[in-house]
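Researcher: I'd like a candidate sequence for this fold, 166 residues long. If you have to choose between options at a position, lean toward the conservative one.
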């Protein structure tokens, strides 16, 4: 399903001459790998930032350190800030940001293992950040987060196409 979805996403992006970028934390590069597994992805995919450590989120993506300290890396505010920072730095039309707790450790009562936030910025608007809770082991959670991020990006591009037609 993921590869087919990536094909469709890239087709939509190419047909509208849009560019895509990703900011990944818990997925650890899986999102970029899924996108680049499709031949010809370079026509629409600029690249991404693997922002696993909070210092990378602040230094490379411009996430406010105070906000990061108050909200925690796994939050709506932070994935939205990551998506905005990515757009500001790479200039992509569609920006995906993912942050979560893949486990097996690191979870809390408020944010248990499997909690993942995804935000998609663009084209032209920010969709609401979405919170998910995935079950399974570390690999399952990372793969599910990648899948969900691609689904949300495809949804954002489809919605933008509908708005443009209307």
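Model: Candidate sequence:
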């Amino acid at each position: 399903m993921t590869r087919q979805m990536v094909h469709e996403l890239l087709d939509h992006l190419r047909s509208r001459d849009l560019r895509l970028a990703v900011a990944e934390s818990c997925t650890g590069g899986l999102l970029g790998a899924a996108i680049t597994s499709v031949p010809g992805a370079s026509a629409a995919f600029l690249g991404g930032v693997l922002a696993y450590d909070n210092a990378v989120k602040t230094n490379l993506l411009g996430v406010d350190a105070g906000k990061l300290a108050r909200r925690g890396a796994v939050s709506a505010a932070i994935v939205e800030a990551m998506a905005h920072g990515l757009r500001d730095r790479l200039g992509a039309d569609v920006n995906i940001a993912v942050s979560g707790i893949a486990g097996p450790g690191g979870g809390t009562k408020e944010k248990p293992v499997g909690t993942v936030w995804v935000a998609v910025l663009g084209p032209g608007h920010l969709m609401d950040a979405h919170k998910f809770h995935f079950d399974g082991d570390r690999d399952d959670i990372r793969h599910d987060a990648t899948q969900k991020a691609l689904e949300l990006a495809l949804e954002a591009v489809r919605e933008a196409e509908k708005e443009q037609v209307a």
